[in-house]
Amino acid sequence: MKMRVAVLLAVFAVFCAADAQTCALDGLMSSLTKSVASAVLEKVTLSCIDASARGSLVDCPAGYKPTGCSCGNACGSWDIRNDQTCHCQCANQDWTAARCCKIALK
Question: Residue 28 CA to chain centroid, in angstroms?
Answer without folding.
Answer: 26
